[in-house]
Amino acid sequence: DAGVIQSPRHEVTEMGQEVTLRCKPISGHDYLFWYRQTMMRGLELLIYFNNNVPIDDSGMPEDRFSAKMPNASFSTLKIQPSEPRDSAVYFCASSPLHLQETQYFGPGTRLLVL
Amino acid sequence: QKEVEQDPGPLSVPEGAIVSLNCTYSNSAFQYFMWYRQYSRKGPELLMYTYSSGNKEDGRFTAQVDKSSKYISLFIRDSQPSDSATYLCATLGGGNKLTFGTGTQLKVEL
Question: Which of residues A52 and B98 earns the better pLDDT score?
Fold first, then answer.
């Protein structure tokens, strides 16, 4: 298996622009998670899905952030409009139903908002 | 108070040393405890997980949980330069949500 795939790996954009991050989870995994990692706050859960349905989005910082999972093999995290404080590494992770405690992370998208 | 506290380090040890990494947590309801390893500019990878109290060993790595003191430990024996990474402890709370410590940066020197 190729593992969790994220794109792009790096994104540099200007304040106010829309940013879309993409994730392909491991095939057969029922859960998908979006995290954000910064030096100051560490790794924070933004939102997670179960069988394509958003279950908990309490970590989404503002209405500027939105996430979708139109099917079992694809999810997006969108920031519109982006701000410099959104600069961070965004990770996608997935886990199977029977091993919910084991999450497999993608390589991350390093976002810089100027 | 953060739900999971972890000393950020950095921790520098000579090759071959025994390394002890530690976390404390606040919620006594937590039952699953994980250790993730993160190399620079990579995603975290699951090293080990334990359920409830006790020890779990995997090669050079031993995870230990003491629920009475809410203390989580990871021991690395015969540490190698390839062990140099950031180690994140995590607990699984309600709703399948992982809560991570901020990570301890480890450097194993030749």
Answer: A52
SS3 label, residue A81: coil
Per residue in A41-94, pLDDT tens?
889 999 999 999 999 999 998 899 999 999 999 999 999 999 999 999 999 999
Tokens of A80: 């519109």
CB A100 to CB B96 under 8 A?
yes
What is the least distance, in Å, from the CA of A2 to any CA of chain B? 14
8 A C-beta contact, residue B61 and residue B73: no
pLDDT band at B105 (very low <50, low <70, confident <90, very high): very high
CB burial of A12-32 (b: ≥16 within 10 Å; e: otherwise) equals ebeeeeebebbbbbbeebbbb
Residues 49-108 of A with CB under 8 A from B: 50, 55-56, 91, 93, 95, 100-108
SS3 A62: coil
Measured in angstroms, the CA of A77 and the nearest CA of chain B are apart by: 17
| Amino acid identity at A76 | T
Which of B44, B45, B97 faces A45 most closely, judged by CB atoms? Answer: B97
Answer whether residue A100 shows pLDDT above 70: no
